[in-house]
What we know:
Strand order of the largest sheet: 12-11-10-22-23-24-25
Distance between the termini: 47 Å
Strand content: 25-35%
Shape: globular
Helix content: 10-25%
Structural class: alpha+beta
Amino acid sequence: xxxxxxxxxxxxxxxxxxxxxxxxxxxxxxxxxxxxxxxxxxxxxxxxxxxxxxxxxxxxxxxxxxxxxxxxxxxxxxxxxxxxxxxxxxxxxxxxxxxxxxxxxxxxxxxxxxxxxxxxxxxxxxxxxxxxxxxxxxxxxxxxxxxxxxxxxxxxxxxxxxxxxxxxxxxxxxxxxxxxxxxxxxxxxxxxxxxxxxxxxxxxxxxxxxxxxxxxxxxxxxxxxxxxxxxxxxxxxxxxxxxxxxxxxxxxxxxxxxxxxxxxxxxxxxxxxxxxxxxxxxxxxxxxxxxxxxxxxxxxxxxxxxxxxxxxxxxxxxxxxxxxxxxxxxxxxxxxxxxxxxxxxxxxxxxxxxxxxxxxxxxxxxxxxxxxxxxxxxxxxxxxxxxxxxxxxxxxxxxxxxxxxxxxxxxxxxxxxxxxxxxxxxxxxxxxxxxxxxxxxxxxxxxxxxxxxxxxxxxxxxxxxxxxxxxxxxxxxxxxxxxxxxxxxxxxxxxxxxxxxxxxxxxxxxxxxxxxxxxxxxxxxxxxxxxxxxxxxxxxxxxx
Length: 544
């Protein structure tokens, strides 16, 4: 387990991010006091241990998860929380707990069993992550945890194919946007039953808004949700509690147990539509970075992420690269942490010169170089970019007075053109962008330059709808015909909740848009609303 960071350490890191004098003069007396008091040094972990036999109720209330599969390694996760809606999870705050993990080739744990013991530290909210190495590439595994007499549910995971392996099939799913009060996580229940190799969560895993504890809504009866959730998340405890609420959902638990997840965030994991160190609430950056540090810390604690992604204060290297044999390279982006502030006050605006300003960026210069350098060395058949916000142009109207969304790539057109120029310069084939954020599903052709309607197609964008955000939705939202007319590169538009699966083969990629009819009532069936195919070497989507 990495060295622990106290919340005061997060404040210190935020100060280093901006400079100590500027930080102290703008964050107020509380932050200044934190620096003045003689606090324990970073890296100090609790020495006292809780006997697991003293845990009197199930500590595995938040399920299990695995993530970021590598050819010879899997990452396993759980959190001990017998009372998940308490800040401590119902465990003593100063005591560590020994947890046994087990990995096997069969669900009964009789073949190829590996096991070990790991410590759940109170400094990390008693979360557990285990990296198990030395495994066979492209193989399936079952795992579970033990704490005293308590045994977790069994999870399933897979290693990635070996580098250079000529794998001929990979089936993934993409999901995003799961506002807890908006509806049941029915889509996750169906996702758990799919035959998949990996799931990509593209952001808005939690929402920071208050949840009215007295309202009658989907997950609960009036008055059954603790009042602690009826406030916006600002502190580390706030964010930890919000993850506990979401992760206690049985459908989300089932999805995590069924498949390895590769996660990235969008905005609501910290604050709606924040841009780098700029808060939408117009608080000073120095103050917002304290909140961002808390949000990033809780995100890492509660997701199946490897040690290199552990944040330092308000900084977290989330963009990373995964390969699945010769079939696919995945370049997972972070379009929040390094971006310039949105142009023209954010929202839907008429396009102006700022969106073409080459000094503005959505990814930051370092991540942009990393992405293009990765393409330069890619030998994969499919180059897939899981990321957050709409990449293809999305005009509101087919007339000259159209508007664009300043929070998406449309608001950073120069940044998008550099990415597309990089793709062309490196000569990569078969570019596929996976997107979330917008609470509807789209299938789009990617044009070399969206300003030129005759521009050639250079790739495909598959946009997954939300799991629950936006409530039930509709197959054809009110702007359905207008949007398709305004954007001829847009081949499909659906406003129901659900997810998308993508099946990759050497000669094609097939997207199946899976939707549920309702999320405000439980148990809705899933159906395939549409399917599209793009052929290797022939960019562009066609109905399957």
